[in-house]
Amino acid sequence: MEILHEEHDMLWTMRIEEDAPHVADDAKKLKTLRKSRSILRQRIVDSNLEYVNSKESPFKIWKGLIETFVRKMIKSQLFTIRRLLSLNFEEKQKLASYFLTFDKFIRDLGKST
Question: Its domain of life (predicted)?
């Protein structure tokens, strides 16, 4: 999203509040904020729109998405780390199977960072 906003020269809209004094008086900046908000909402999957429906400014939309999904990523990482730490090799198990499971956990950790 930041790259898209940077391409449209609107990256600043994701860093400030809409009701900031230097923005509220400038009609051109307000129009840019509305366009930025529209771009953000167009790129969000319909199932995730519920997280941002009540947000008015691009800053609040972005902040809300980060707060929601970073929390989920941390939980996922902790769960994967716990599963990795509890992974034990059993004598009946094939070594290749154990390594495949280990590699899957490592890939999962890499995806969530």
Answer: Eukaryota
